[in-house]
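Bug report

Summary: structure tokens for Serpin B12-like differ between web form and batch submission.
Environment: batch mode, default settings.
Steps: 1) Submit the sequence below via batch. 2) Compare with the web form result.

Sequence submitted:
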Amino acid sequence: MDSAEKQDIGNLAASIDYFTNSLYQAVATGTNENVFMSPFSVATVLSMVYLGARQNSAKQFENVLKITSNPDSVALAFKEYFSLLKNSDKLVTFNSVNRLYASEKFPISEDYKNNMVKYFFSDIENVEMFLEGCSQKKFVGWRDMVMWKALQKNGFN
């Protein structure tokens, strides 16, 4: 790994560390509340969305994640980091399974889909989000999400 790749991963680690602390502070506001989550997965998914964000949306992701690099550099840093983890000591297991879902009405470019696979070892899928004709919109995409998650055995899928 060259020095530029090490720097990219270092910047990514600093960003995730800052985001982790901010996220825990934001969600653990009550005195008797328990929180269980993976800030790494949240940061990964937000970075996946950041790769496709433009203009003001991209600026908002940069602010939340404290990113100083452009979306392509962040995506490349994730790819390098995942590759480093995958090829590290076999006594250590790291699984990270993340996927994006978008409304079936939202078009997703093939280029973006390819970048999800290339950089994040993941993908994005259009799903039916809400039942039509209900007085209350009912989220139904969770069925697809639960089935997909149940089929995953290891990370980097």
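Above is the batch result. After comparison, the two runs are identical; trailing whitespace caused the diff. Strands lie at 100-103, 124-127. The chain has a mean pLDDT of 82.
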